[in-house]
Amino acid sequence: MPKSTTYSSVVFSWFLLIALGIIWGLSFMGVELALRSYTPLTIATFRVVFAALLLFALCIFTGNQLPRVSDKNGKRILLHCLGMGLFSNAIPFTLLSWGQINVSSSFAGISMAVVPLVVLPLSHYLIPNQRMTKVKLIGFVIGFIGVVILIGPGSINFSTNSIIIFAQIACVLASVCYACGSIITKLAPTSNLLSFTSCSLLFAATAMLPITIYIDGLPSFNYDLAFFGLIYLGLFPTALATIMLVLLIRLKGPPFLSLVNYQVPIWAVIFGMFILQEHLPSQLIFALIFILIGLGISEFKKN
Length: 303
Description:
Helices cover 78% and strands 0% of the residues. The protein is mainly α.
């Protein structure tokens, strides 16, 4: 491969990674807004259904067919679509939405740093050429220290209150789901990007919609901040981000995608400061230094 092509691919991959970090960094604000009027299950289901219908319509418009059993590797592709839909969308969206009722968005943000720590050993054993090295491990540890500095240990509530503890566990489990989802996506047979993501979201929507209607009933929508929070969650962190994450996993693999979880807390704090007029944490600069060093070390390759 020519050097110019390789360089362009690297630049494009990092652009996607940073853009994804910004989009997901704003998602916590979207959840906070949506929780003013809607239940966690309704929020998670709406964003999945909205994104599924949007991408399915895009498939029809562009002439792309959904994966079929009769296609080459069709059964395997559909199985991976189901796995991605559940582990990258349905389950973690629900866990995070419920968790944010009882824990701060800061805790939800720091829990995302668990993703690369789970992806690392999974990739080592399941994905060829994704071996866990000492250098990568050092980079991940330094990046995680940066996230801890950014959020501050004081935001992690180890109260004896069982609801708080279960909410904290839910956020961590959501990160584990994201890690599993990225591995499932990487191991999927090659297929059309738009068809794969659309099918994954349709599986998730099909699983969630009847459960949500049974438990919460049909929601009533008012055109307020909570509603626009829902629209943002469905359009950007779900529909667009799903396409971006699948593309990144195919280009660079799950360990590279997992680096986005070190960015998410930074963007969440920045948007909170400028949009919600929140106080800028004094440890932001130090955290940013640690996170950038961790990112650089984890991607370091000997010539």
